Amino acid sequence: MRKVLFPTIIIIASILIVARLFYLQIIDDSLKLKSDNNAIKIKYDYPERGYIYDRYGKLLVANQPSYDIMVIPKDVKEIDTTEFCSLLSITKEDFEKKIAKAKVYSPRLPSVFLPQLNKMEYAAFQEKQRKFDGFYIQKRSLRDYQVDCGANVFGFITQVNEGIIKKNKYYISGDLIGKQGVEESYEEILRGVKGVKYIQKDKFNRDIASYKDGKFDTIAVQGKDITLSIDAELQKYGEQLMINKRGGIVAIEPKTGEILALVTAPSYDPAILVGRQRSKNYTMLYHDSIAKPLYDRGLLAEYTPGSPFKILTGLVGLQEGVIDTETSFVCHHGFSYARGRFMRCHDSGVSKLHNGFYNSCNTYFANVYMKTINKYVKPADGVDAWSNHLKSFGLGEFMGYDLPTGRRGKIPTSKTYKKMYPGWNWDSKTIVSNAIGQGEVLMTPMQLANMIATVANRGYYYTPHIIKKIKGDVIDKKFRTKHQTTIDRKHFEPVIEGLYDVYNLGTARGLGVEGIQICGKTGTAENYAKINGKRVKLQDHSIFVAFAPKDNPKIAIAVFVENGYWGARWAGPITTLMIEKYINRKISRKDLEKRMLEGSLQAEYNKYISKPIVDTLINTTVSKPLNTEIKKEDEIKVTEPTEN
């Protein structure tokens, strides 16, 4: 048996190899198309990208024709480079660099020599194309923006780089791909599938006919249209309100999780990233390290949330049973929580849950937070219980929305403080600033908007998403999955009553709109930067969260205005105007509108421009305020600015 086993294996293996070679060489000739075959020219047919509409069917992004000059380096013969360069307004140095780059990619395969010619440039080159062997025109489509807002929502189209080509075999040199925004998130849906034609050439390099009668040709499949949840009119209005200000606005439909507006300020007209000036304009935006127009503050900026965080402090206190609606604390313009430690407050007198919210009493919520932590024998257990409640609101984690960028924010746990205070017996007094949204808590505007949407829903939320409909397809089921918090529904009602009176009796009185019951919360967050190794206080951020109407809410919103002093000064009026615009489709508070449209914080931002530390300063305050670098001996000295 052993004598025949080895010869048998050799014979079987030989038969398999011969059969495979016969199949590949005689029967299946598709591999010929994958080589740099001199006799076959590959021509691609690029489909139009899918159109983009807003929630009401308004066309936002369409397409316009564009023309790329392609080159096959080995076919480039003796040409008049002076005439060629003059025709296309490029230098001879540019010509040589582009040819060299094309040769590196492949001497035999086509690659883009000069992209995105307009109609006049195309016509001029087409007239003389016969004089330039090795060059031909590839028709494509570029984006045609029907609106001048929403650049951060859409993203942009750019050429693929070598890294993308190596990672994804679909793309070849010169192909376009969506970057940032929905163009990146829904790239495979929007791009469609390009068609391929194989053309036989003769020995004189002339086209003869389709290779194998078109056996291997494929037809281009147009990209699918998508409908966004964005309200284009609301998005535009939000960007207008944020002119000469920095910050973000996020508006959500509570019952669906659909994003109604996603504003980052400053922004830019998406049309400037189309055409041959795209690269130049993108470089200009990219190197603007002061205003950072490419930085989506609504998704990336992690701020201390300030007083809107008191909503969560109250809900957790109710759920943990350490307070009820009648629990009261006496405030003497602040809260003394340790020897020499005082948390300033603009309120005074007896505070309960209801007036604690509408007066934004620091003393009340500091006591609630400490009672929550002190309910447990070990402070570490109390912090983890508190942290778990907050995480059920989607905080401290990536939220899973359908946009390609974001930050997780920060919700501290016992591990946070064990690392911060090794070998030290920290307790609720040490970390009490968490109660009022300072301390180690960080949130993005998107997270804060989702939090207030969850409150509007009385305890549940859907993952925020910007897609509403895909033509011929369905949206991801995760956007239709309800997430329940750990807070019982009954605890939301008294909190909402307090938020409702923020507009009627409290820190936002005077900002209301007749006929709309708005529930909201002002916020003022301390803002620090590390400058030359020192912790320096800058102008506070203005914050506001709200939803409306009180019952059957249609919109939940969070507004951050950097260096905006206090909540009711900038963020509050902007919030009111956005709510009225969405619900009533018109504005009655012309006084607020005029003040917000004409108002500017540029003078505040300009204070730092002439200083050599500007980059450090702006980078720090925009993305992650340094409000957590506190030494042990300093413990925590929190002063919440007065909210007017």
UniProtKB/TrEMBL annotation:
According to the UniProt entry, its GO molecular function terms are:
penicillin binding; peptidoglycan L,D-transpeptidase activity; serine-type D-Ala-D-Ala carboxypeptidase activity
Record's keyword terms, sorted: Carboxypeptidase, Cell inner membrane, Cell membrane, Cell shape, Cell wall biogenesis/degradation, Hydrolase, Membrane, Peptidoglycan synthesis, Protease, Transmembrane, Transmembrane helix
Q: Which InterPro entries match?
A: Beta-lactam/transpept, Beta-lactam/transpept-like, PBP_dimer, PBP_dimer_sf, PCN-bd_Tpept, Penicillin-binding_protein_2
Locate the Penicillin-binding protein transpeptidase domain: which residues? 247-575
A GO term (biological process) for this protein?
proteolysis
Residues passing through the membrane, by range? 6-24
Where mainly found?
A: membrane
GO cellular component annotations, sorted alphabetically?
Answer: plasma membrane
Answer yes or no on keyword Transmembrane: yes
Q: What is its EC number?
A: 3.4.16.4
| Alphabetized Pfam families for the sequence | PBP_dimer, Transpeptidase
This protein's record includes keyword Membrane: yes
Q: Where in the cell is it found?
A: Cell membrane; Membrane
> Domain named Penicillin-binding protein dimerisation: which ranges?
46-209
Identify its membrane topology class: Single-pass membrane protein
What's this protein's name? Penicillin-binding protein 2
Q: Which domain of life is it from?
A: Bacteria
Q: Which Gene3D superfamilies did the record assign?
A: DD-peptidase/beta-lactamase superfamily, Penicillin-binding protein 2a (Domain 2), Penicillin-binding protein 2a, domain 3
